[in-house]
Write a structure and sequence with these properties.
834 residues; alpha+beta; seven-stranded mixed sheet; 19% strand; RNA-binding
Length: 834
Amino acid sequence: MSSEQQIEVSQAPHAASYDVRAVQERWRAVWDELNPFEADEADETRERRYALTMFPYPSGDLHMGHGEVFALHDMLARYWRLRGYNVLNPIGWDSFGLPAENAAIKRNENPATYTYANIETQAESIRRYGVSFDWTRRLHTSDPEYYRWTQWLFTRFYERGLAYRKASNVNWCPNDQTVLANEQVVNGVCERCGAVVTKRELTQWYFKITAYAQRLLDDMDALRGSWPDHVLAMQRNWIGRSEGAWVDFAIEGRQEPVRVFTTRPDTVYGATFFVVAPDAPLAAEIVAPEQVEALAAYLEQTNKATEIERQSTEGAKTGVFLGVHATNPLTGEQMPVWAADYVLADYGSGAVMAVPAHDQRDLDFAHTFDLPVRTVVAVPGEDDPAVSGVATTGDGDYVNSPALQGIATKTEGVRHIIDKLVADGRGEAAVTFRLRDWLLSRQRYWGAPIPIVHCGSCGEVSVADEDLPVRLPDLRGTDLAPKGTSPLAAATGWVSTTCPSCGGAARRDTDTMDTFVDSSWYFLRYCSPTYSDGPFDPAAVARWMPAEHYFGGVEHAILHSLYSRFFTKVLHDMGMIDFVEPFTAHTNQGQVINQGRSMSKSLGNGVDLGQQIDDFGVDAVRLTVVFAGPPADDIDWADVSPSGASRFLQRAWRIAHDVTSDVGADPASGDPTLRKITHKTVHDCQELLDSHRFNVVVARVMELVNATRKVIDASAGSGGADPAVREAAETTAILLSMVAPYVAEEMWAVLGHEPTVALATWPAVDSSLLVEDTVICIVQVSGKVRGKLEVASDIDDAALEALALAEPNVQRFIDGRDVRKVIVRAPKLVSVVV
RNA sequence: GCCGGGUUGGCGGAAUCGGUAGACGCGAUGGUCUCAAACACCAUUGUCCGAAAGGAUGUGUGGGUUCGAGUCCCACACCCGGCACCA
């Protein structure tokens, strides 16, 4: 910083308030010049910490949700910086994606135009919001220098067999005209646009995330306690591990037996029919000639049903007999084989053994089609399902089960049957997962092109590293309109290329990648955003990763988090990084709502972040969201008071202006009570911040300001000369800088410090000031508070007991009764039992 | 149905080691200032009894453990979130 730079501060000595706008302008300029928030790549003396927050998608300007997450995240980042850590706090944009493409079609332009204009707007708003980002590391996933490496990673996954193409029945959004991952279909509708999702048989690209299912599950153990419980629970549900067995069923007319998965191999004796998913290849394969037509009709009916109808558990079961029989491997009985849509084609083998007595779905189906029910577990206290119509699943005595005589528990029964199946060569223990492979190809333009070339003679060939990135051709307007195939397919000049392998004519793959691919590794790129020899500099990543804390929305609890965890594990296996989990700790901030409901145009209850800032100032808005409650809780804007926050900040500012002692005045000579409060506040705030209880930190700073005000006002206005008041005011400025950086800078400057409170350090706590000379001791009689005593904090038990028993009101309640016991917890409590 | 989280004044919340329940703030009421209002400042503010001292009661419901429970245990109710024909 040049020495001639002077920071002008509103110096009117007894001004009642400050000009919020002027202050915001002034300090933003100082931060831009000094860049106090840049991570120091070279500094080896300070411990490093990586503070990560989910990068925004550039649709329009920032909204209240951004205001909340940035305020919370920044409080933590600034706290770490104050505590002396070398903090990496980067920002970027998740800038590929459909909204920009849809906007571009309407505006007849390239999506980049809209995207980068929005990014500039948001960047300006974020800077105004005073978030302590390191702007030198800014990245955008739609930049060719970024997606070059997204493509590079794809080719590495491809080489390892983790990216592959297959044909299957996939989710199709008729509105966006693209396929969707399972994760993007919510209650049968497109998560993005709300259109009812249908199924289509298409060949698509997948990432083999299922190969990592067990590790994704196991490694969550290390996250317990530092990730939200519900996020871990959601991921666990999503992965959906289940233990059971593969059981072989011979099917007439088929050479090989069909393996089906069951979690209840102990109920094979109760299997009375066999069900295949109508859309599984197996159904068409085994159907008897005379039933081919019936199956085709049923399949058509099933496919027409929307996902919502199909997934509905209401309503009668449907199905069609396939005209063949399967053999129960334990009873040898012939069981009819049916096709029914309650069996899912892509789970297990797409077929199940039906045990109607002990599975409600099978029982409902059996009732609909009048199929036999055989109870094999007699559960005590429950009616026979064959009679009651309610399937039982509990432990009980096995009946009709020759191999399970005398066994009384499910666990034992399961193990027993698995052993038997293994011995007979008809099955084995098995684990299946609900998790499916990640469908990553999209038939849209504004994403990273899949770096694969299709060659007539060589087949799929990945583009050579030195030819990356495969850049998007410049398409705009109606060229981008959804047609069911990728817009890239229409760019014929772009599509035709030469085969990297044989040099012959070939075609580029015309799909682009799901934007979740882009965001699965951006946190790694931040560590070395301009690195050109790979997606990231391994040394830089080793320095900063894993991120100590990740702030973001709960809407990414499954998708983005799971995918990022998957990428991290793959990169670990590739030897590029030495950790297996990317985010050590994770917090989901709540939503900002208004009047009990989500903000929406139709309800007219929207709250505009920019307007709030114009009305109350950045500091007051940030303080409001932090003070509203715990970070994970929703904030109802109708319940909070930015004007109250603003009032408090003015009070704090006046404290600094009332300080009349000189810089460096020795606080030791100051008011001892205030000093204790100051040091206790710093000490407590440290613990509160370490456990992310940011709202309580604000409350404690408010208490400090209140206490300081009292001292200033006490001695007829001369209290401002007390060095303890200066100490309190400086402490307030530093603590406040985490939440309300602008007013904190004003305070810091008026207190005679420069150049910026952003370079201040956490106040040292004098532990001798944390010890109270006297404390209030409460005295209970029969568990009720009957007296309070002010006693020396080092009083011994005997003396305290004597004092307590002598207290008049305590005496009154003992009232001559026998004192049976006295519990003394000196110096805070005496409990008298009568 | 399964999984996860929760239920504390008029409101947001605090009490995170089992030890004064209601910190801090909002709102409300009264007051000072003002011709008046706004702002600001001061005081009061869980409920009930009481002039006060003080007492009773009180953290979703019912039980339990303990000298002592918002906090621990058991059962239940309700609310929020996620998943849901995954065999």
